[in-house]
Design goal:
Layout: H1 2-6, E1 15-23, E2 26-32, E3 38-42, H2 49-52, H3 61-67, E4 68-71, E5 77-81, E6 91-96, H4 107-113, H5 121-133, E7 147-152, H6 166-175, E8 188-192, E9 197-198, H7 199-204, H8 210-226, E10 229-231, E11 239-241, E12 260-261, E13 267-269, H9 271-290, E14 303-308, E15 311-318, E16 323-328, E17 348-350, E18 357-361, E19 367-372, H10 386-394, H11 399-411, E20 419-424, H12 439-443, E21 462-467, H13 473-478, E22 485-488, H14 489-494, H15 500-516, E23 520-521, E24 529-533, E25 549-551, E26 557-558
Length: 565
């Protein structure tokens, strides 16, 4: 998409600071107009970017008067031919989006019974793109008008005047973490005009009899359902047919009537498709994690293989936040699973009162644990207590050191939770210099991103993402069934699963194993060790009767690999 953008001359002045943004899986070129309006252009709209700029159609009242026409329906829909720019014009449809509004008229009862709501413009485009892609899943292409752009005028309007309900808009906001949704601005979807006439007009002109019209409406409904989608307002006005010029309508080579669909503000997946996609996404993830370190020859634009402190990563910038993301392994297909919009705002459970560590299930149905790194913070330790002074002198590991230690322990046969990804936030943090430990920023100064920026910066926060422990990656890739349930050693003692003697034995064993590997936990606690409960509800043990354990906290592990580079 970047190459296509570079070929469009004269749009540099309109580019937003982050010109490329991905929302719900669809890439957009974000243009900011001189008046503060925004235009989000899809890949299909890129060749017509100049034509789609608002001053070349909607924003010019005189042009709209002579070249635009309002189409019938309950929503505000206009058909217009854009001005000719660089020798080309485009016939488009502009429809004002009704997200957050009550569904009017005869559609309301049917839609509400099905739990339907008006789609946001970004969700609508995402679903239409997905509908187009079903031709790779099932035979047969589904014809629709093509999504070109989303136009957001600068003018502010009170949400109540737009008919937007608070609870609906809040739900939309929660599902669109890649981009802010403004309650007080209008949004319009821009589609390519689909040539032809709607089924109602065809019936009025005698091209469709009553029975044929009813059969076409039912066929469109069934075809859509077969692809895994449904619309709550299945109207003949949304079915476009094409007169053949001989008093008949165009048909395919099998004699079946050709048709296309328009108007997708109430399009949604069927429950069966929704569940299947989540299951497929999760299974693909499990298989790829089991093979994440296998070499990959091709990386898509924007992603690059890097190695930091002995750990292989796929690195890329996060378009939605301006941050950075390092995903463990060599598989670029795993990058998308850890974008912050997939896990940052999903329902979560806090796992510690002392640390910012959370358990969540991502939008791709992947169970992870994420933790806000304390790198750069001065540990809350007493400098006059010998044991705590060692913590102060050492400081918290960087996320990259944590992952490096975890991988080194695993190489030496000491089990750990699985390091998955490191996310660097896009926002700038403001911390008093008196509270900052500069040691890691100084020791990491030579480590750079492919763009030449420091991987560790005082101006950003970092989040480490770990696999939720429920079984080995290899086992889950073969059969997606939890093998274990994790519980930390202290919790196991409190629940009576471990005696005092057993707890002490576990702590000593962990300390000795790490020492043998050249690693020391400067503040070893029972919460740093993860034990496993098997399917029978018992603590899983090794051949000596010692509970199976995994190291799960790495911020104060000291070893050669975690030292200053």
């Amino acid at each position: 998409m970047r190459d296509a953008i570079n070929r469009i001359e004269g749009i540099g002045a309109y580019l937003a600071p982050q010109p490329l943004v991905t929302v719900l899986g669809v890439k957009y070129l974000h243009l900011r107009m001189e008046d503060g309006s925004d235009l989000y252009v899809t890949e299909r709209g890129l060749p017509f970017t100049k034509c789609l700029m608002p001053e070349n159609h909607w924003a010019d009242d005189r042009w709209m008067k002579f070249h635009g026409v309002r189409l019938p329906g309950t929503s505000a829909v206009h058909r217009v031919t854009t001005k000719k720019i660089d020798g080309r014009a485009k016939e488009i449809v502009i429809k004002w989006n009704r997200m957050g509004q009550d569904i009017p008229g005869e559609t309301q009862v049917q839609a509400e019974e099905a739990g339907a709501e008006f789609n946001s413009p970004f969700l609508e485009f995402s679903l239409v793109y997905e509908l187009h892609s079903t031709r790779f899943e099932l035979p047969g292409r589904f014809y629709t008008h093509k999504p070109l752009a989303i136009y957001v005028p600068r003018k502010y309007v009170k949400a109540e005047q737009l008919g937007r309900r608070q609870h609906r808009m809040q739900a939309i906001e929660r599902s669109h973490r890649e981009i802010p949704i403004d309650w007080n601005r209008n949004y319009a979807v821009i589609y390519e005009w689909l040539k032809g006439i709607d089924a109602v007009e065809a019936h009025r002109k005698g091209l469709l009899e009553n029975r044929a019209l009813a059969e076409l409406v039912e066929r469109a409904k069934n075809d859509l359902n077969a692809k895994g989608f449904v619309v709550s307002d299945n109207k003949p006005q949304h079915i476009i047919v094409r007169p053949a010029g001989n008093g008949h309508l165009a048909t395919d080579r099998w004699g079946k009537l050709l048709y296309g669909l328009v108007d997708f503000e109430l399009l949604r997946r069927t429950p069966v498709r929704e569940e299947r996609l989540r299951a497929e996404k999760r299974q693909e993830y499990l298989v790829r994690q089991a093979h994440r370190f296998e070499p990959r020859e091709r990386f898509p634009p924007g992603l690059a293989p890097v190695n930091i402190l002995g750990v292989d990563y796929v690195y890329g910038q996060v378009e939605s936040t301006g941050g950075g993301l390092w995903v463990v392994g060599r598989d670029p297909m795993l990058f998308d699973y850890f974008l912050p919009e997939k896990w940052r705002r999903t329902p979560r459970t806090r796992l510690s009162s002392a640390y910012e560590v959370y358990e969540t299930v991502t939008r791709d149905n992947v169970h992870v644990v994420w933790r806000v790194s304390r790198v750069g913070q001065i540990p809350d330790a007493d400098p006059f207590v010998r044991r705590e002074k060692r913590i102060l002198d050492y400081g918290y590991n960087s996320p990259f050191q944590e992952f490096s230690v975890a991988m080194e322990l695993a190489r030496q046969g000491i089990e750990t939770t699985y390091p998955r990804a490191i996310y660097m936030t896009g926002h700038r943090s403001t911390v008093s210099s008196s509270l900052v430990d500069d040691s890691r920023y100084e020791s990491h100064a030579a480590l750079r991103t492919p763009e030449g920026h420091p991987i560790l910066s005082r101006q950003h926060e970092y989040v480490t993402i770990w696999g939720y422990w429920n079984g080995p990656d290899d086992a889950l890739a073969v059969k997606d069934e939890p093998v274990y349930t994790g519980i930390d050693a202290l919790a196991a003692y409190r629940e009576g699963r471990l005696s005092q003697r057993g707890y002490v034995r576990v702590m000593r064993a962990a300390k000795h194993r790490m020492a043998a590997a050249g690693v020391e936990d400067l503040s070893l606690r029972g919460t740093h060790l993860l034990l496993s409960i098997d399917r029978q509800g018992r603590l899983a043990t090794d051949e000596t009767g010692l509970p199976l354990m995994r190291i799960c906290n790495f911020e104060l592990l000291k070893c050669g690999a975690a030292g200053k580079p």
